[in-house]
């Protein structure tokens, strides 16, 4: 099968013919329909997470497809079932796995960094619990579920206890993750949603998906948001960027006893002291989401789907997809299509 490989000492992916995996034990072989291109893929290429990457490897952790084959002990799923693949694959027996947080498993693996991922025609998933049936949702439409939608849902779930109908929540970064967060905030809460992004297209898109207000990050966005929230500030801020600037913005916006949830991987830091934030502000990071979260994402999308714009690229153009993402020209989500998709095997 064809796969895009991240080889030692390189920052571009190399197309190669590799053996098609064969499932054993509890494993599930998924024929990939689409694999999303994520900003964390750029961080991997740039060497930011080199201690977490096992080269050579096939990147791509945001995967949807169709079950192609099962190991002899795999059960609970049938060949031919459309599925989305969970981003983190835990051991299944440690404290974090047995309490429903496989994404935090210390010995777990992740497609695209420590195990071969979705920039290939097939991906081998270690257990049937790591694939979630899509029902009537087309796999291509579900490509963003395994990371963008999952992480956004987990972030929204984290801040929901702080929110009431009189509160404001600001979403920093209105790309793929931010758009899902806005959608879920409008679905699951009555809070007023404010979005901030440095791109005009993302600001417009934030309004399209339900934000009450969307502002351009122009250096004075903090005062513009303050004029909307009043002296109480925001009860919650979700930062999908994570730069020095956005973390400082989040700290400025969060009001007394509010919460700041960080998912962005831009490497920024925030000075933390007793008087550096409003009184009793909670700081938290959000690491992907749980398997239960992914099931909830699928249920929500079956009931009230969010149509994220997808820009598709054939597998041979995977490096172009990564370059376009880096250039900021992707409005929704970039998706890599394997060769089988190009031949029209799935939709």
Automatic annotation (TrEMBL):
Enoyl reductase (ER) domain: from which residue to which, for each copy? 9-336
Keyword Isomerase assigned: no
Keywords carried by this UniProt record: Metal-binding, Oxidoreductase, Zinc
Cofactor(s) listed in the protein's UniProt record: Zn(2+)
Family the UniProt entry places it in? Belongs to the zinc-containing alcohol dehydrogenase family.
Oxidoreductase in keyword set: yes
PROSITE patterns with a match to the protein in the record: ADH_ZINC
> Which Pfam families does the entry link to?
ADH_N, ADH_zinc_N
What is this protein identified as? Unannotated protein
Q: List the GO terms this entry assigns under cellular component, sorted alphabetically.
A: cytoplasm
